[in-house]
């Protein structure tokens, strides 16, 4: 939630300025891609819904928007059974809820069906480890040297191409794709220890989980 709070106003401003879908009643579909496992994702969804409502009120010059419903899709990997998500559904939400399992590096929705996508700090997880890379079984490239780093960069490019191609087909004309990334200062090397410190803590936990 804290990461989204830091950019909440920017997200609201982007929706009010850039969301350009003509709505004359009907359903607005919003998809949150990746890490949809707990209550924080509902906060993100409600923020987007409220911003779109604000946009519609400005377009119609009305304080009340009638005839418009919202559907929120929450996506995560197949291993997520979505029990935590379903048990955390807020009673005061203003949208319908649906869980969508599967990798966002492939198509998830019908063509031209989603009005707004959001992906918050999820795209740094690659679809797989790069092929032909001997990295001592590790999931991060820190300390692996230039060859390992370049292999991970190449895999990231392939994943981003797949991600953006899927969203391009699924997004309606005038819709909006909101992406939030983990970033590093320009002065920090791509494989700097501080940049990968979070992943280095998570790695042994994931390895133990996989072995079980």
Automatic annotation (TrEMBL):
<dbReference type="Pfam" id="PF03492">
    <property type="entry name" value="Methyltransf_7"/>
</dbReference>
<protein>
    <recommendedName>
        <fullName>Jasmonate O-methyltransferase</fullName>
    </recommendedName>
</protein>
<dbReference type="InterPro" id="IPR029063">
    <property type="entry name" value="SAM-dependent_MTases_sf"/>
</dbReference>
<dbReference type="InterPro" id="IPR005299">
    <property type="entry name" value="MeTrfase_7"/>
</dbReference>
<dbReference type="GO" id="GO:0008168">
    <property type="term" value="F:methyltransferase activity"/>
</dbReference>
